Amino acid sequence: MQDALAEVEPEVAPAQLAENAQGKEDRKDKKRVWRIRTVPTSLLKFRAFQKGRGQPEANLKKTRERNESLEGRCGLGCMVIPCCQRLNNIYCFMIFYCLLVTSQGIVFGLIDLSIDTFQKAYHLSNVENLLLSLTYDISSCLIVVFISYYGGKGNIPRWITLSSFLVGFGSLLFAFPYFSDGNYQSSINIEDICQEMKTSKICKKSSSFSTKYIASFILGQTVQGIAGMPLYILGVVFIGNSVATHSAGIYIGLIESSVVLGYSLSYVIVALLIKGTENSTFAFSGEDTDGDQRWMQKWWIYFGLVSLIAWSTLIPLSCFPHSIRGTAKIKAEKRKQPNPFKLKIKDQEFGTSLKDLFSTIWVLLKSPLFICLTLAKASESLVYIGASVFLPIYIENQFILTHSTATKIAGFVLFPGGALGQLLGGTIASMLHMSCKALMRFVMVTSVISVIFFGFVIFVHCDPVPFAGINEDYDGTGHLGNLTAPCNSHCKCSSSFYSAVCGRDNIAYFSPCFAGCTLSKTFNHHKAYYNCSCIQEGLTTSDDQGDFIDARPGTCDTKCYKLPLFVAFIFSTILFSIFSRIPSTLTILRIVPDNQRSLALGLTYVILRIFGTIPGPILFRMVGDTSCIFRVTEYCGNKGNCRIYNKLKMAYLMVGICSICKLITIFFTAIAFCLYKCLSEENSDTLHIPVKNLKVKRKGKN
């Protein structure tokens, strides 16, 4: 036994002396670097290279870890500002970082609202509409792998600074068509009452504005896609490396909730700009050209403000060093902790060549655990995508609200449900110090609860409103599915223009023309229609001049008061559904090696886009098309907008698709849980002690 100790101690003593000498060397190096702070970094790198020459290959990994843990000082380039060093911490970084992320969230909301309004006004084809919507996802997928791999090996704050500039620049590209061309309106006039057709110059649209809009938005979406990758991939990795393991959930939750906050704010703030009118399919009228131009010009103001917000973070973010203060201590503590399961590639080192990139990708894709967690995250994202795309349409048609009111309600539901869900999900995971298996259990439990709430949502719907020509046959004189009846056949009405009115008989009509109205008056900005040949029954009311009003603009009241109950259920559904997003991200970060985290998130992003965000809008638009009862006639050779939906079918389809997505999330998470349990030893998140340490222990026991 003593002989064995005698063999071990001579090896330990030189190691301790070498460690002490190395510590003194590091302190001297720090002092030297501080004295020559203004010397170009290339000279410092050259000095480190000369110093590292001749080192054994076994020490290269230690040298790399020591360089990564080197904390820099806050400053702009070679200028170090002493008074700013107190700001060199994760809290100040998070303030500017979340502000930047919120600004891009606002851009996302403005883009969706602007595209929706533009599509209704200019009747874009499905290909053009999808191209405008999916350019961000496609462009980001093409570059995310390269940015995540090479950016993860570089200076991440510099990448985020680049994102700050690109977010502002991309926002200005979206504003360009609005302030560069004053001719916004389409030469279309409104068809109003019977025998007074006001349709003129149909299909002679402002082609210059349309072309500028499509080109600017495609380019802007591409720039935003490039800007988003350092934000949501490298930024998450940087924060994960700068905070304790069980605190990462709170910070990542703040980041994700900031995106949702910005997106929802854009819905609430810009809802008043949605000029798709309260009950019509078109946005422009030749009778109010000046008002339409003033409305359209407001869009560029919002995009310009977002650019200023994003660029306000440019200088502060550029001042942060490669590693902020406190990172070295946190990394040292993490190295002392037991290593979690790392996909069996913990000790593999990859370079910067393309061969190393594809080798790393192949190693990650060979892991069924990683693939299952990524697919679960992709299916879970479909629920929130469906809510953001389909919820405003659903609320508008289910509860007969105006488009702007429905958009506001959707924004109020998405904001607290999405933002609080992600923030609370990350906070709960951090406060309870959840292990990987506990995180996967949390995902499955919250997904089951959200499916239960989806089941309650399906019972909250309203009865359809009587609509002439759709579910009412003009008192037996017409036919279902045909808006024309003997009472309005002489009016030569066109179904290209939807402007619903409610008759005194509590029946909705497609337009005043289809109601047979021959006279209209406006009192206090409220319009009323008279002498409607299709309206013969109902209580009569007179105006200030004694004339009897037959119809008023808007769809009839459904007398359905279930909207508060629906909001409560859909809020709970989104809340519990979003609970699982941060735990899913944390699980992926923990099962991969530290030096492969950025690439793992990049691959997750690609899979999430391919199976989630890219097919998601297409899927939910198909749901809307299948539940459509009546669509306006062909307009300028393009497919018209759907105006009347089957409410019950819409409810079943929305709830069914979202429930299936959550069940897929549960399925893949359960498989990942079983795989992790089988691959880990004794239901623990730790690995065996490395073999080289076991040899020393066995040597001491002999």
Automatic annotation (TrEMBL):
Q: Which SUPFAM superfamilies match?
A: Kazal-type serine protease inhibitors (SSF100895), MFS general substrate transporter (SSF103473)
Q: Which UniProt keywords apply?
A: Cell membrane, Disulfide bond, Glycoprotein, Ion transport, Membrane, Transmembrane, Transmembrane helix, Transport
Composition bias of kind Acidic residues appears in 1-10
BP-aspect Gene Ontology terms = monoatomic ion transport; sodium-independent organic anion transport
**Main localisation:** membrane
**What is stated as this protein's family in its record?**
Belongs to the organo anion transporter (TC 2.A.60) family.
Name of the protein: Solute carrier organic anion transporter family member
